[in-house]
Specification:
Chain lengths: 455, 461
C-alpha cells in the first residue's frame, strides 16, 4: 500500500515547513469544527503531509481518505498568519494519492474516469451531454420520474444526488454571446471565460457578465469553444490533465483576441474557476512553450467583481424594486482570491437593494467541487448550517458567485421548500442596467444572432 | 514501553471507542504544540467528556504508571502540551460546555475545554467583558489559559488570567476531584490553593472547570497611533503617560523591523524610517476617555512623536489597530521558522532592553523583530530563522541566552506569559534562584509522587 510520495517530496520543502503549527486556522476549518480532531484540521493535515515528505509516514489509505475529507475550501489560508500555501500542498498530496492508486475501487475508478478524465476534458461532448439532460428535463421526464417516485429505483448514492441535478439551460453561452461584442465607446478589451458547468446550467450569467462589461465600455472576446478551467482536475489529483486544460484555454483566448497582449484583462465570473485560473503561471512554470504566456495570463486574469472595482463600478441609473438581498461568499472567491468586498459593492451599487449580512457568510456551503458527491454526510451538515443562517436573514434573494455554490443552495432551498432566489451579483447588476436601458443594454435575442447551439 | 492493549481497552471503556486515538494518522497531528522545532509523537490521544472520566483516566494512569500530558488546543509557545513518549495525551477540547452565567455575581462557570473567544462572546452578549485577550484566543482553551496564566493586550489596565479566576475544579494526580475557590470576592479561608494551579502548566493537576470573574463593559474607547524617529522618544512617551496618571488599556509597541514587515504586508502607509510605533487605547467613561485621549496625543507630541493620529471613528480605530494586529502575521511569513519569545522587564527598562535585543541581533547576524506590550514590559522578540539551518539555529540559541540573561539583570523575567514548558527549562534556575525552584520541586513531589502529570515540563525532578 505504499509508494514514494513524488509530488509532495518534490515540493519546495519551505512550503511544508512554513506552517508553525500555531493553530490559528483551526476555528475556521469546517471539518475541524465538526469533529474537534486535529487530523481533520489544516494543522493536522499539514503535519501528515510533512511526515510523508520526511519519510515518517507511508502513503496509506487513511491518509488518502483524510485528504479527500478536506473540503479544499481554503478557509485555513485566510486565517493563517504565516501565509502557508495549503492549496499547493493539498493538490500535491491528492496527486500522490491518485498516482499510488490508494483509494482505487471499481465504482470510484469509473466515476473518476467518466467525470475528471473523460467528460470534463471534452467540451463538445460535455455540451452534448448537457443537451441530452436538457431534453430529459424539458420534456418533463424528470418531473415524471420524480412524481412516480421512480427515483427509488436508483442506487442509494445516485438517489441522494438526483435532487442536486441542476436545470440545464436551453441555450449555452456560445448561443447567447457573439465571439466579439463591441460597446458604443471602447475603453478596454477583455476576454470572457464561460466555464464548463456554468456554460450548461447558468449560461445566462455569462450573458449578464458580457452585458455588464459592455456597460462598462469593455469590448468582450468570448471564444466559442472553451475547456474546463482544470480546477476539477487539479483538486482531484490529475495535475497533468489540469495542465492540458490550461494550455487549451490559453490558446483559445489567444486565437480569439489575436494575442494575450491585446487584452487588458481576462474575466472569469465563477469563484472556483477564478481561484485556479489565476495560478496557470505556477501550473505551467516548467513548460518552456507556455511559461511566459501563462505568466501573462495570470497577470491579466480578473474576477469580474474585482475588474469592475478596478475600472470604476458604474451604478445603474435606475433603482430596482426594493428588496432584501444577502450574500453568500464562494470559498474560492473569498479565501482563494481574497475578494470579499467587491461583490458586496456590486450589490450596494444597485439602488433599491438592501444588503443584509449573512452570518458566517464565508463558511463553506458543502458544495466544494464534487465534495457533495463524494462526502454527502459532511456536505449535508454544512448545507443545513448555511440554510439556517439564510433563513435568519429573511432575504428573498441570495447572491452568490460560483456555480457549485448556486447548485448546492438551490437544491437545499428546493428540498426545504423555501422560495428563495439564488442569483449571481452580476446578474442583478445586469437586470438593473436593463431596467434603465430596456433596449440598448439588452442583446438581440439569441436565436436571431446565432445558429442554434453547436450540440 | 508502549501502552498495553489492556490499558487502551480500559481507556476505551471509560470514554468510548471513538475517543481513543492510536493510529499514526490520528496521533501524528498531536506531536507538537505552537512551539517551533519540538516534536514527540504520543502513545495515544484520549478525549474525555466529563470530569468523572478524567478522574478515571488519571486513576488508570496511576495503576499502570503511564504519564499524562494534558492538552487544550495546543497553541502553547513553550512546548507545554508536547507529548511524552508512550504517554497519554489527555485532550480537553470536547469538554466545552458553558455551565452557568451568573449575572447577579458577574461570574461565568465553564468547562476547561471552552475556547477563550466563546467566553469573551458570551460575556459580551450580557453586556460584560472578559478582559484577558491572548493573541490566540480564537482557539486557545480557557483551561490552557489558566494553566499558562496567559496575558494579552490589556494587561496593564486589566491584569492577566489569574486576576479573573475565582474558582477551579481540579483532578489531582491521585484521581481525586477537588473544588478550589468560590464566588466570593473576598475569601481567605486557608491557603489560596487555586492560585497554585494557575500557571502550573499541567504538572500538578488537570483543570476541568473554571469559575471566571467578569466586569462591566467600558462605555467608550479611543484609539491613537504614534510613530517615533527615535526609540527613546517612544519610551519617554510611555513613561510620561503613566506619570500623568493615565492607565491606557492598550499600549502596544512595534520596532523598526516589525514596522517594515507590517508595511510590506499590509500597506498601511507607515513611515519605514521610524524606530518605533505606539498603538494606544483608553477605555472607560466617555468624558474621561475623551480627556485622556487628548492628553495622550499631547504628551506624544511633546516627546517628539513624528506623527500622531487620533481615530475619529470606529472604522478608523480598526484601521490603526491593524498595524499592531498584523505584526505577528507580517513577521511570521518572512522566514520558514518563527520563534516568538516573551522576555519581560520592568517598564522603566524597556528602552534599554529593546536596544539590547537589536544589538544582539546585529552581532549574531540574525533577524529579530520586536513588538510587544509596552505598558506591562512584556516584549516579543521574534526570531525569523530556519530550523533546517543548524548553524543559524545555534546562533539563535546563543542570542536567546544573552537576551534572557540581560532581562534578568534588569530585574525582569525570561517569560511574561508563555510559560517554561520544555523550551525554557534550561533558563529557569538562573531566573528564579535555587530557593524558589526547590520549593516548586517539593510541591511537585508531594502532589505527584510518581511524576505522572506532564513529567519533564518546567523542571526535571
Ligand atoms: C499566535 C499565538 C498567539 C499567542 N498569544 C498569546 C498571548 O497574547 N498571551 C499569552 O499569554 N499567550 C499567547 N499564546 C500562547 C498560548 O496560546 C497560550 O499559552 C494559551 O493559553 C494556550 O492554550 P491552549 O488551550 O492552546 O493550551 P495548550 O497549548 O494545549 O497547553 C498549554 C499548557 O497548559 C496545560 N494545560 C492545558 N489545558 C489544561 C487543563 N485543562 N488543565 C491543566 N493543564 C492544562 C498543558 O499541559 C500545557 O502545559 C499565543 C500563541 C499563539 C500560537
Ligand atoms: S481547505 Fe477547508 S476543510 Fe481543508 S483544511 Fe483548509 S479549512 Fe479545513
Ligand atoms: S496553517 Fe498557518 S494557521 Fe494553521 S497552524 Fe500552520 S501556520 Fe498556523
Amino acid at each position: 500500500m505504499s509508494a514514494t510520495p513524488g509530488h509532495l517530496a518534490r515540493l519546495d520543502y519551505a512550503v511544508l515547513q512554513q506552517c508553525m503549527h500555531c493553530g490559528m486556522c483551526l476555528p475556521t476549518c469546517p471539518t475541524y469544527d465538526a469533529t474537534k480532531l486535529e487530523r481533520h484540521g489544516p494543522r493536522g493535515r499539514i503535519s501528515l503531509m510533512r511526515a510523508l515528505a520526511d519519510g515518517e509516514l507511508q502513503l496509506t489509505k487513511a491518509f488518502g481518505e483524510e485528504m479527500y475529507y478536506c473540503l479544499g475550501c481554503l478557509a485555513c489560508m485566510s486565517a493563517c498568519p504565516a501565509g502557508v500555501n495549503y492549496a499547493e500542498m493539498f493538490e500535491a498530496a491528492r496527486a500522490d494519492i491518485e498516482a499510488a492508486g490508494l483509494l482505487d475501487n471499481p465504482k470510484r475508478n469509473f466515476v473518476r474516469w467518466f467525470t475528471v478524465k473523460f467528460i470534463f476534458t471534452r467540451p463538445r461532448l460535455l455540451r452534448l451531454l448537457g443537451r441530452c439532460l436538457y431534453l430529459y428535463q424539458a420534456l418533463g421526464l424528470q418531473t415524471l420520474f420524480r412524481k412516480l417516485r421512480l427515483t427509488v429505483l436508483l442506487p442509494q448514492s445516485l438517489r441522494e444526488l438526483e435532487p442536486l441535478t441542476p436545470t440545464v439551460r436551453r441555450h449555452f453561452s456560445d448561443a447567447l454571446i457573439r465571439e466579439v461584442e463591441t460597446p458604443a465607446q471602447r475603453r478596454y478589451r477583455v476576454g470572457l471565460l464561460t466555464g464548463c458547468v456554468q456554460d450548461l446550467i447558468y449560461s445566462e450569467i455569462n450573458r449578464d457578465t458580457a452585458d455588464v462589461l459592455l456597460a462598462h465600455d469593455c469590448e468582450v472576446y468570448t471564444p466559442r469553444l472553451q475547456h474546463c478551467c482544470g480546477s476539477l482536475h487539479a483538486h482531484n489529483g490529475e495535475l497533468e490533465l489540469a495542465r492540458r486544460m490550461a494550455r487549451e484555454n490559453i490558446i483559445a483566448i489567444e486565437k480569439s483576441a489575436g494575442s494575450l497582449e491585446a487584452l487588458d484583462a481576462i474575466i472569469t465570473n465563477a469563484g472556483g474557476c477564478g481561484s485556479h485560473l489565476k495560478h496557470y503561471d505556477h501550473l505551467l512554470h516548467d513548460d518552456p512553450a507556455f511559461a511566459g504566456r501563462a505568466a501573462a495570463w495570470s497577470r491579466k486574469l480578473k474576477d469580474v467583481h474585482e475588474w469592475l472595482a478596478e475600472i470604476g463600478l458604474r451604478p445603474p441609473p435606475m433603482a430596482v424594486a426594493p428588496q432584501r438581498v444577502t450574500y453568500h461568499e464562494s470559498c474560492h472567491l473569498c479565501h482563494g482570491q481574497k475578494i470579499s468586498h467587491a461583490p458586496r459593492e456590486v450589490l450596494r451599487a444597485i439602488g433599491g437593494l438592501e444588503l443584509v449580512e449573512l452570518p458566517e457568510s464565508n463558511w463553506c456551503c458543502g458544495s466544494a467541487g464534487i465534495y457533495n458527491i463524494t462526502q454527502p454526510e459532511m456536505a449535508g451538515k454544512l448545507l443545513a448550517r448555511k440554510l439556517r443562517h439564510l433563513e435568519g436573514t429573511q432575504a428573498p434573494i441570495v447572491a452568490s458567485a460560483n456555480p457549485g455554490c448556486s447548485v448546492q443552495l438551490e437544491a437545499g432551498l428546493r428540498q426545504a421548500r423555501r422560495p428563495v432566489r439564488v442569483v449571481h451579483p452580476v446578474s442583478l447588476l445586469a437586470e438593473a442596467f436593463r431596467r434603465a436601458h430596456p433596449k440598448s443594454a439588452r442583446p438581440p435575442a439569441a436565436s436571431t444572432r446565432q445558429p442554434s447551439p453547436s450540440a | 514501553m508502549t501502552i498495553s492493549t489492556e490499558a487502551l481497552n480500559k481507556l476505551r471503556s471509560i470514554v468510548g471507542q471513538e475517543n481513543v486515538l492510536t493510529q499514526p494518522e490520528d496521533v501524528i497531528p498531536y506531536a507538537f504544540d505552537g512551539t517551533a522545532a519540538i516534536k514527540q509523537p504520543a502513545g495515544c490521544v484520549v478525549f474525555p467528556q466529563a470530569t468523572r472520566q478524567v478522574a478515571e483516566i488519571i486513576k488508570l494512569a496511576n495503576a499502570s504508571q503511564i504519564p499524562v500530558v494534558t492538552r487544550g488546543s495546543g497553541t502553547g509557545l513553550s512546548g507545554g502540551s508536547v507529548p511524552v513518549a508512550e504517554g497519554i495525551v489527555l485532550c480537553l477540547v470536547k469538554m466545552d460546555r458553558v455551565l452557568d452565567l451568573d449575572q447577579k455575581n458577574l461570574t461565568l462557570l465553564v468547562e476547561a475545554g471552552v475556547v477563550t473567544q466563546n467566553v469573551a462572546d458570551l460575556a459580551a452578549t450580557a453586556g460584560l467583558l472578559y478582559p484577558p485577550d491572548p493573541g490566540s484566543m480564537k482557539i486557545s482553551t480557557i483551561g490552557g489559559n489558566v494553566a499558562e496564566n496567559s496575558g494579552g493586550l490589556r494587561g496593564l489596565k486589566y491584569g492577566v488570567t489569574r486576576d479573573y479566576v475565582m474558582g477551579l475544579e481540579v483532578v489531582l494526580a491521585n484521581g481525586k476531584v477537588v473544588w478550589l475557590g468560590s464566588k466570593c470576592v473576598k475569601d481567605v479561608a486557608g491557603y489560596s490553593m487555586k492560585d497554585v494551579f494557575i500557571g502550573s502548566e499541567g504538572t500538578l493537576g488537570v483543570i476541568t472547570k473554571v469559575l471566571l470573574k467578569l466586569v462591566p463593559q467600558p462605555a467608550a474607547k479611543r484609539t491613537l497611533l504614534a510613530t517615533f524617529a527615535r526609540m527613546d522618544a517612544a519610551a519617554e512617551t510611555v513613561s510620561a503617560i503613566i506619570a500623568a496618571r493615565i492607565i491606557p488599556c492598550t499600549l502596544e509597541f512595534l520596532d523598526r523591523i516589525t514596522i517594515q514587515c507590517v508595511e510590506d504586508f499590509a500597506h498601511i502607509g507607515l513611515p519605514l524610517d521610524a524606530e518605533a510605533l505606539l498603538l494606544m487605547e483608553t477605555d472607560g467613561h466617555p468624558a474621561v476617555v475623551e480627556d485622556e485621549a487628548r492628553r495622550m496625543e499631547q504628551i506624544a507630541r511633546e516627546h517628539g512623536a513624528a506623527s500622531v493620529t487620533l481615530a475619529q471613528s470606529a472604522q478608523e480605530a480598526a484601521r490603526l489597530a491593524t498595524a499592531r494586529r498584523s505584526a505577528f502575521s507580517a513577521l511570521a511569513r518572512v522566514a520558514p521558522t518563527t520563534i516568538l519569545e516573551d522576555a519581560t522587564v520592568p517598564r522603566s527598562e524597556l528602552a534599554r532592553m529593546i536596544r539590547f535585543i537589536q544589538e544582539v541581533g546585529e552581532r549574531h547576524g540574525l533577524r529579530i523583530g520586536t513588538f510587544g506590550h509596552m505598558g506591562d514590559g512584556n516584549l516579543h522578540p521574534t526570531f525569523l530563522t530556519d530550523e533546517c539551518n543548524h548553524e543559524e539555529m545555534e546562533r539563535v540559541e546563543r542570542a536567546m541566552k544573552e537576551i534572557f540573561d540581560f532581562a534578568i539583570q534588569l530585574g525582569g523575567t525570561i517569560t511574561g506569559e508563555h510559560g517554561i514548558g520544555l523550551a525554557k527549562k534550561a533558563f529557569l534556575p538562573g531566573a528564579i534562584g535555587e530557593g524558589s525552584l526547590d520549593l516548586m520541586r517539593q510541591l511537585k513531589r508531594a502532589w505527584d509522587p510518581d511524576n505522572l502529570l506532564n513529567p519533564g515540563k518546567i523542571f526535571d525532578r
